[in-house]
Amino acid sequence: MRRAVQPLSLCLLSLLLLSQLCSGIKWLAISRTPSLLHVNRTQQCKQLQGLVSSQVQLCRSNLELMPTIIQAAREVKKTCQKTFTDMRWNCSSIESGPQYLPDLERGTRESAFVYALSAAAISHTIARACTSGDLRLCSCGAMPGEIPEPGYRWGGCADNLHYGLVMGSKFSDAPMTMKKSGSLANKLMHLHNSEVGRQALRDALEMKCKCHGVSGSCSIRTCWRGLQDLKDIAMDLKTKYLSATKVVHRSMGTRKQLVPKDIDIRPVRANELVYLQSSPDFCSKNDKLGSVGTQDRQCNKTSNGSDSCDLMCCGRGYNPYMENLVERCHCKYHWCCYVTCKKCERTVERYVCK
């Protein structure tokens, strides 16, 4: 006889399904797509991990764009982990997708950062792909309408930020526009933070120039609008992460919206990251909260920052160990044109948290 499913099991099952529906960053799992797989047939769209039905449809109608989106997912993971390498939370849980740990599912400030970075990265990667000629659907961005200063002229190939924002937002926001996309509060939070990421990308558009003139005199400069590197945008978002605002979903007038929890006399600002749930301190392992802890994490004994052994190890102390490094040394330039180096060994002392 088949055993009846207990009510508690049904409840847990419904919670599991809800958590899966809430996640708008499941698409980052396509970063695991084998590099040998060329997405050139619509049937392959269903084989990509983490895509919701509307993203599968976007894939089918924009096959040429998929390698760029896969590259964007890889950039998000790499950039997030590098940006937080000196923090207790080091973005390691981003590798668990498409079934994310609670630190990225519960509406925390960590999820706020990842959503913002994901939205910025996908538009950034598409904009750069237009410039490099990797996409037939787009080309260089439009030249600015204003007249440049004397000695400057518009030219070159600008990053196509407009196209990147249009296509990137269609793809990254698709899960949050579905009817079954979790609670309205989570949906509003994710959409807001994604837009914060795109605004950080807009702010990262700067003038880049190349000199022309006799003997490098730079008598005239050819200039275009180009984006900063994604790592610089991530650092801007990290600053916003550190000052993120906790919000609640509350009735304001005729509808509910997100308002700051402690200072609800003002609306949420368009350029601030917001979160609904407080984060743990990430000192100890706690699967229910998505904390992997800091045991065995490397720390810096001489630092006063977040990577210091006192802060990283949460007062538990640390263990030293010796590491042998092999480095290039005694390099010599030979005319013309190569460099030869020797290999030198040195021993350094490292520290890991207890």
Automatic annotation (TrEMBL):
Question: Which residue positions does the secretion signal occupy?
Answer: 1-24
Q: Which GO terms describe its cellular component?
A: extracellular space
Q: Which GO BP terms, alphabetically?
A: animal organ development; canonical Wnt signaling pathway; cell fate commitment; neuron differentiation
Q: Which SMART domains match?
A: WNT1
Q: Does the keyword Lipoprotein apply?
A: yes
Q: Where in the cell is it found?
A: Secreted, Extracellular space, Extracellular matrix
Gene3D superfamilies xref list:
3.30.2460.20
- Which top-level group of life is the source organism from? Eukaryota
| Keyword list, A-Z | Developmental protein, Disulfide bond, Extracellular matrix, Glycoprotein, Lipoprotein, Secreted, Signal, Wnt signaling pathway
What CDD domains does UniProt report for this protein, alphabetically? Wnt_Wnt11 (cd19343)
Extract the GO molecular function terms from the UniProt entry. Answer: cytokine activity; frizzled binding
Question: In the UniProt record, does the keyword Lipid metabolism occur?
Answer: no
Q: Family assignment?
A: Belongs to the Wnt family.
Its annotated function is as follows: Ligand for members of the frizzled family of seven transmembrane receptors.
Q: Which named protein is this?
A: Protein Wnt
